Amino acid sequence: MTIYARLIGTGSYLPERVMTNAELETSVDTTDAWIQARTGIQQRHIAGENEFTLDLAEAASRRAIEAAGINPNTIDLIVVATTTADRVFPSTACLLQSKLDIHGPPAFDVQAVCSGFVYALDVANRFIQTGGATRALVVGAETFSRIIDWTDRNTCVLFGDGAGAVILDAAESPGIYSTHLHADGDYANLLHVPKGVSTNLVAVQEGTAFVEMQGTEVFKMAVNKLGEIVDETLAANNMQYSDIDWLVPHQANIRIIKATAKKLGMPMDKVIQTVQYHGNTSAASIPLALDAGIREGYIKPGETVLMEAFGGGFTWGSALLKV
Ligand code: ACO
Questions:
Q1: CA 156 to ligand 1: nearest atom
Q2: Residues lining ligand 1, judged by CB closer than 6 Å?
Q3: Residue whose CA lies nearest to ligand 1 atom number 12
Q4: Nearby residues of 199 by Cβ (< 8 Å), 6 or more positions away
Q5: Are 215 and 154 in contact (CB under 8 A)?
Q6: N or C end of the chain: which has fewer CB within 10 A?
Q7: Same topology between domain 4-173 and domain 178-272+283-322
Q8: Domain residue spans in the chain?
Q9: With helix as H, strand as E and coil as C, how does the chain read?
Q10: Does domain 4-173 have CATH number 3.60.140.10?
Q11: How many Cα atoms are found within 13 Å in the side-chain-facing hemisphere of 79?
Q12: pLDDT, tens digit (0-9, with 9 covering 90-100), for 220-264
């Protein structure tokens, strides 16, 4: 019998503090009009001084657990996608496991930046399909504000903090139809934090390890690769564009989202768009959008959802599922 991973609950969390475009106008040479026209972003949420990735992950996880109506002790796999872990080690997943009072099952982090959630979903899906787990908590959580140079207008207008989580259960029918992952490290320098623990621990300690990005190159590559992966995903499942009910894209830039929707021939009212409210939250962006789509009653049980993401690495990936 084929085993599938089925979504049984979603949750998300955004920090209380909202930073509007108007606020950014006071600190860097930018305008609300420029940010909205080039990215679609209106505001982002910023974690409080004593609020960390783990806190965001925990809040989103508790909401997903509640939505699924399960006892946390029945979770037998935890995968957290993050680029902004609280500690070098242990993993955010292990810290989250302790917070949730779960003991024993495997817990680990996945690092694929903005594609992180799709990567984590892929891993959890494979665990479930092969009988290695029966109920997984998959989280995307980031405090990207901590690796942003708030004097660099090229990057600071784009990103925000947040978390999203899903519970996956083993089931006899889909569920997740397929996941598709790619990476090409030759493009590492187009979007990166060039300092790390091994190369420049002082910068990490002093908080000057910041995101650097060649925005236009990233934009072109994202549109190109997301177009390709949409085709790859549908071909793998013998599906047509018209079989997709909802597109839940990585929320980076409304223009990238529109380019992929256009390729799919999907009207924008079939695309979950939350980038305007929280900016690019990296690994948290897809589960944040998915949770909003489900809780606000757009995405309904039985509908087919295509998720796609592109980010640093470069990495890119997709997941096709029935909710
Ligand atoms: N406010 C005002 N002007 C700005 C700002 C700003 N915040 N940032 C850049 N500019 C200026 C530039 O300096 C440039 O000025 P110049 O012509 O005098 O040199 C001008 O605006 C145009 O800049 P471009 O880079 O050509 O603008 P573009 O249309 O490419 O938009 C953007 C820039 C929004 C960064 C876009 O390239 C983009 O979204 N790229 C993808 C980046 C991204 O999403 N990265 C996240 C990770 S990957 C992912 O998630 C997909």
A1: 7
A2: 30, 34, 38-39, 114, 153-154, 157-158, 191, 213, 215-216, 218-219, 222, 250, 252-253, 256, 280, 310-311
A3: 154
A4: none
A5: yes
A6: N
A7: yes
A8: 4-173, 178-272+283-322
A9: CCCEEEEEEEEEECCCEEEEHHHHHCCCCCCHHHHHHHHCCCEEEECCCCCCHHHHHHHHHHHHHHHHCCCHHHCCEEEEECCCCCCCCCCHHHHHHHHCCCCCCCEEEECCHHHHHHHHHHHHHHHHHCCCCCEEEEEEEEEHHHHCCCCCHHHHCCECEEEEEEEEEEECCCCEEEEEEEECHHHHHHEECCCCCCCCHHHHHHCCCCCEECHHHHHHHHHHHHHHHHHHHHHHCCCCHHHCCEEEECCCCHHHHHHHHHHHCCCHHHECCCHHHHCECHHHHHHHHHHHHHHCCCCCCCCEEEEEEEECCCEEEEEEEEC
A10: no
A11: 25
A12: 999 999 999 999 999 999 999 999 999 999 999 999 999 999 988
User: How is domain 178-272+283-322 classified at the CATH fold level?
Assistant: Peroxisomal Thiolase; Chain A, domain 1 (3.40.47)
**β pairing state of 43-46 and 17-20:** antiparallel
Q: How many CB atoms lie within 10 A of CB 302?
A: 8
What confidence tens digit (pLDDT) does each residue in 180-236 have?
A: 999 999 999 999 999 999 998 888 888 899 999 999 999 999 999 999 999 999 999
